[in-house]
Design brief:
heterotrimer, A mainly alpha (352), B alpha+beta (444), C alpha/beta (359), A: 352 residues, mainly alpha, MetI-like fold, 2 domains, B: 444 residues, alpha+beta, 3 domains, four-stranded antiparallel sheet, 11 helices
């Protein structure tokens, strides 16, 4: 005899739109109140924002100056070089995406490709000498706009990496002098604001270098960013090193590797893989922090936003210029943090 | 006999002669006999015989420049020398420019004027100017820390709210703020919002927004009523101290009661009532009002009386609070999520209300996780207050920048900036670490 | 196993670092395949030779002062001061584009010259005794006579500084302005509130939005800022001069030959106005019988050679930027920001411009 089992359908008030509304918005009396207040708040804010964006804002300040926002003072005739550089990066990203699951040869070529693309882009953007008919010099001191922001952030993090790893190793070292010096450096830099480090690199660095050595303003800002970032990289890497189980050291020692090899071949590669998420986070905050170069007089994206509001026809359009800047930053940072969160989940990086 | 040598990193090896032959053991790691390593000249350090097994401890005869222990010391010395040499080179370059190093300028007359925070006139010294900056930074940072914590707490809890709308509002706030640079936010807030507020006065007519109080909001700042001590204040303030003493005494009594009987002998409410009663009694006991409410009035070109918060101060504090609040919200959220779900469920099962669960069960446990990252957010807030220079607020960094431009003493001023920020960071870490330790102990 | 790959990566990384450092630094000792890639900079007397070897001039300018030096929507610098940079490039290389502009904020301009980052600074910098002596700098010539003034709203009714009791005054930090401001108000016993910004533009924005009752700076700057405002007629520059501000190009101490070029090109530009030579008629004037014009344009004499530049340098300069009047009219005249010439007229018209004798 078959027992007819009949599953009772949930009551109508628990499913569908109404159910959802009841569950998420009107479950208790204070939730009802909260919902009403929130809805009113959203209505007021959205209305104000949309009216401004659609009706009141004068976006001409952005559209007219779009090129200036993107590449600033980079010569108009040479602008193609920036596009080609962008193309290289897009191509490499696409290839990385296509071969993301590949192992062995394609992967090796990808690594080589990425490593080669940086010097290639540097040469492409900067060019050779002023007279050279092919790729004439465009000194980094006239790079500006979003281009400068990107260069500062990317070169800053790359340059900080070797120094950061060394500092992290130094801080974990058993040798007291090295440990103390590295710790002092890391803690000092982490205790002061970036602006004071930039100030040092802009105004003090030239005083402490012999007169023959000259660094341009952008190079000095980069030096400052890298020195600052290195302390944070060091702390991230140190965190990664601490996460490697002691058994890894012991096993490596047991197979006869000396200390340097244990570090270089066993511990560091694992530690670096573990800190990728932290480094991405650090890159995002460094990317945001590049705006501080405005205070030392460089024209990055924010500097350009400030500069264009001084043009006679666009006087006082701060809202538009800064809102545009904020949107660009938001798109970049949000994409990066979102992608890295997804990647982290998918690859389980950091759990390995 | 079969000769096998084992070379171990620190140069020590054990030679073990057993009836089956000679084996080598690495003394500090494994008992596994190892073989097949490159022979080096060795000298016997210690030899002994133990139950027919001869044990020879040999030192790999490495020249001292290859001896790892010596190398470690030498390496460190070399590193130190290198650091000192680079420093000396830099300093010699500095001295080559005929620049001197002296803090004597601090005593000199500044001859510029600063109008934010404590009193300052152009005849005051550079040292006083620096103090103005330090005090302003502390003002912004302390107010900012308190407000940002509140905002962060609210936003963090909202982010976990069951209410879909509240949840989304909090997420949007957090994502927008966290993914745009603080300086852009500050510029927007100052140049595009606060400076666009109405003028204080136009053609002899007050155009500021007048809020109850009266409070005047204009692009000259926020003028709010503020209590000001009157003549009788001197006879009133002892009552404040008395109130404090009463509270401390009651607090100790209460704590004793808890210790003895495991249950407070009186409600916390009594302590609070006592705290307020004593000053109120004093208020009526002394002649006249000890504090009078000073209301702002618009006089000539500016508002006077009350307290006037400059637009730069408002913009910086607001900017820092909004920015840091979003980060604290994430910290709070992570802290609450770190409390196992079972805790909430168990508390609910015992009949705690939602508010009680949050207040009595979740938050105390979450605090353990929250405090360490919270410290670093507070430190970030202090450091980020240096962005004041972008919007004309006279904080430590902005004043230093002016001092530097007028005195030309780059290195000296820079050292003062570094020292000030470092000591502020250290103080906050110290206080928060004490708090942290207390919370961790309470939790056990 | 992976060691090969590891080695490959190490090699590639160091290679890219080397290339990157060659590509991005400006240090002379960096090993570059061609010496020309690293622009050499040095201090002392060899600077002029270095400029010539380098092939272009490093010119420190203002990036945000309409009329004198600012970034136009094309992303190029233009202005009164910028034209002088072009003139120097035209004089030395015959090419007004052989310049690299370094936008500088007030606070960093003098260190930039001291440390040799730039060859010549022409960024509305006041010639003062202490700067001239303490900072190892040499002014060449005054190209613009200025004075510190005060701009206020037309409807405020302020006529003098005494009227401004209790006012908030915006100014840019890092300049002599804030000192002069403090002095002027103290001298008159008037109370005021200063508000300091790092950049002229921020100062101006704050003033324009009504954050301050007055804005103080050099009068030329104020005039420039005023024309760039949404409603210029609502602002007036009151008739007070708080200080003397002679502005002009300057070079680092010890570069005498280069300093000579800087001053004589500027005088040549003034002399051209005095002699009636301009960018339009310079070719005809080559046939002029006037001995001064002949010497000025290098038809006669070895003026250029004695400065170490081509004899016909003024021809290039005039073709590139024109004479003083043309430069002035282009940027500061009615088509620019419209500042009355006042003391910046030729001495023959009652002004202070007096080029030295061209012989």
């Amino acid at each position: 005899m078959a027992v007819q089992s009949e599953t009772m359908k949930p009551p109508r008030s628990e499913v569908g739109l109404l159910g959802w509304l009841k569950k998420n918005l009107f479950s208790t009396w204070y939730n009802v109140l909260l919902t009403i207040f929130s809805a009113a708040f959203i209505y007021i804010v959205l209305r104000a924002v949309i009216t401004w964006v659609v009706r009141d804002a004068r976006w001409a300040v952005v559209t007219t100056n779009l090129r200036v926002f993107m590449i600033g003072r980079y010569p108009r005739d040479e602008a193609g070089r920036v596009l080609v550089s962008l193309g290289i990066i897009v191509l490499m990203t696409a290839l990385t995406w296509v071969f993301r699951k590949a192992k062995g040869k394609p992967r090796r070529w990808l690594v080589i490709g990425w490593l080669l693309s940086f010097p290639l882009i540097t040469i492409l953007l900067r060019g050779f000498s002023r007279e050279s008919p092919f790729l004439p010099l465009v000194s980094e001191d006239i790079w500006s706009g979003l281009l400068l922001t990107l260069v500062l952030a990317i070169v800053g993090i790359l340059a900080s990496f070797p120094l950061g790893v060394l500092l992290a190793l130094g801080r974990r070292s058993k040798l007291p002098i090295i440990k103390v010096l590295c710790t002092m450096y890391i803690e000092t830099i982490r205790g002061v604001p970036l602006i004071s480090v930039l100030f040092m690199s802009q105004l003090m660095l030239p005083l402490f270098l012999p007169p023959e050595i000259r660094l341009g303003t952008v190079m000095r800002a980069l030096t400052g960013m890298a020195l600052f970032s290195a302390a944070y990289t060091a702390e991230n890497v140190r965190g990664g090193l601490a996460s490697i189980p002691i058994g890894q050291y012991e096993a490596a020692r047991a197979v006869g590797l000396n200390e340097a090899l244990v570090m270089g071949l066993i511990v560091l590669p694992q530690a670096l893989r573990a800190v990728i998420p932290a480094i991405v986070g650090q890159f995002i905050s460094l990317f945001k922090d590049t705006t501080l170069v405005v205070i030392v007089g460089l024209l990055d994206l924010l500097g350009i936003a400030k500069a264009v509001t001084a043009q006679k026809e666009f006087i006082g359009l701060h809202k538009e210029a800064y809102a545009f800047t904020a949107v660009i930053f938001f798109i970049c940072c949000f994409t990066m943090s979102y992608t890295s969160r997804r990647l982290e989940q998918r690859l389980g990086v950091g759990e390995r | 006999m079969d000769q096998r040598w084992f070379v171990v990193p620190n140069g020590l090896a054990l030679e073990v002669s057993t009836p089956t032959g000679v084996q080598w053991m690495q003394p500090d790691m494994s008992d596994e006999p190892t073989s097949g390593c490159i022979p080096l000249i060795k000298k016997v350090v210690k030899a002994s015989t133990h139950r027919g097994t001869r044990i020879v401890e040999r030192q790999k005869a490495v020249p001292f420049w290859l001896d790892e222990r010596v190398l470690k010391v030498l390496g460190q010395i070399a590193f130190l020398i290198l650091v000192i040499a680079v420093g000396a080179w830099a300093i010699s370059n500095y001295l080559d420019r005929d620049l001197t190093f002296t803090f004597r300028f601090l005593g000199e007359e500044a001859s510029f004027h600063l109008a934010e925070g404590i009193e300052f006139s152009p005849t005051d010294s550079y040292a006083r100017a620096f103090l103005v900056g330090v005090v302003n930074t502390i003002r912004v940072a302390s107010l900012g820390i308190v407000l940002a914590s509140l905002l962060g707490m609210v936003a963090g809890i909202s982010r976990l709210s069951d209410n879909w709308l509240v949840n989304k509002i909090a997420s949007v706030y957090i994502e927008i703020v966290r993914n745009t640079p603080l300086l852009v936010q500050l510029f927007f807030l100052y140049f595009a919002v606060i400076l666009k507020l109405p003028q204080l006065k136009m053609k002899d007519e007050v155009t500021a927004i007048i809020l109850p109080g009266p409070t005047y909001l204009s692009n000259r700042g926020l003028a709010i009523p503020w209590p000001r001590p009157s003549d009788s204040f001197s006879s009133w303030w002892p009552f404040l101290i008395a109130a404090l003493i009463v509270v401390v005494v009651l607090w100790i009594l209460r704590a004793r009661g808890v210790q003895r009987t495991g249950r407070p002998s009186f409600n916390m409410l009594w302590v609070i009532i006592a705290f307020f009663t004593v000053p109120v009694i004093g208020w009526f006991a002394v002649p006249g009002n000890p504090l009078v409410l000073d209301v702002p009035i618009i006089e000539g070109l500016r508002a006077t009386g009350g307290t006037i918060l400059s637009p730069e101060f408002v913009a910086l504090t607001l900017g820092l609070v909004i920015y840091t609040g979003a980060f604290i919200a994430e910290v709070v959220r992570a802290g609450i999520l770190a409390v196992p779900k079972g805790q909430t469920e168990a508390a609910r099962a015992q009949g705690f209300t939602n508010g009680q669960v949050l207040r009595l069960i979740v938050l105390p446990q979450a605090l353990r996780v929250i405090i360490p990252p919270l410290i670093s957010q507070y430190l970030n807030l202090i450091k980020n207050s240096s962005l004041a220079v972008g919007i004309g607020f006279l904080d430590l960094y902005a004043v230093s920048s002016t001092m530097l431009n007028q005195s030309g003493r780059v290195v000296e001023v820079f050292l003062m900036i570094m020292a000030s920020y470092l000591s502020m960071s250290l103080t906050v870490s110290l206080i928060m670490n004490i708090v942290n330790r207390r919370i961790q102990i309470v939790e056990r | 196993m992976n060691r090969k790959r590891f080695a490959l990566i190490v090699v590639l990384m160091s290679l890219s670092l080397i290339i990157a450092s060659c590509g991005t630094t400006e240090c002379p000792e960096c090993v570059c395949p061609e010496a020309g890639e690293c622009p050499e900079v040095a201090v002392g007397g060899e600077r002029f030779q270095l400029i010539k070897d380098r092939g272009y001039i490093l010119c420190g300018v203002n990036a945000e002062l309409v009329g004198f030096g600012f970034l136009n929507p094309e992303g190029e610098f233009e202005g009164f001061d910028v034209d002088f940079c072009k003139a120097y490039a035209a004089a030395v290389f015959g090419d007004p584009t052989a310049v690299e502009y370094r936008p500088l904020v007030a606070a960093e301009r003098l260190p930039a010259l001291q440390t040799g980052e730039i060859d010549v600074l022409i960024r509305n910098t006041t010639w003062t005794l202490t700067r001239d002596t303490a900072n190892e700098l040499d002014w060449a010539v005054v190209t613009f006579y200025d004075g510190q003034g005060m701009m206020v709203r037309a409807d405020s009714g302020f006529k003098t500084l005494e009227d401004m009791a209790g006012a908030t005054v915006c100014t840019t930090t890092g300049t002599t302005t804030e000192m002069n401001l403090a002095d002027s108000f103290r001298m008159r016993g008037v109370e005021y509130t200063p508000l300091l910004f790092e950049s002229t533009q921020d100062t101006n924005t704050a003033y324009e939005e009504g954050r301050c009752d007055g804005e103080t700076s050099d009068k030329s700057q104020l005039a420039a800022l005023r024309t760039a405002m949404a409603e210029p007629e609502e602002h007036v520059i009151i008739d007070v001069t708080m200080s003397k501000e002679p502005l002009g190009p300057l070079t680092a101490h010890g570069d005498n030959q280069w300093n000579d070029v800087v001053r004589w090109v500027a005088w040549g530009i003034m002399e051209a106005e005095e002699s009636g030579v301009n960018s339009q008629n310079v070719d005809e004037m080559l046939n002029s019988e006037n001995p001064t014009i002949k010497r000025l344009l290098g038809v006669e004499g070895e003026m250029g050679a004695s400065l170490g530049i081509p004899n016909d340098f003024m021809v290039h300069v005039l073709k590139a930027v024109g004479n003083y009047k043309e430069i002035y009219m282009r940027h500061l005249g009615p088509f620019g920001i419209d500042i009355p010439r006042g003391p910046n007229e030729l001495w023959t018209n009652g002004g202070l411009l007096y080029p030295m004798a061209w012989r």
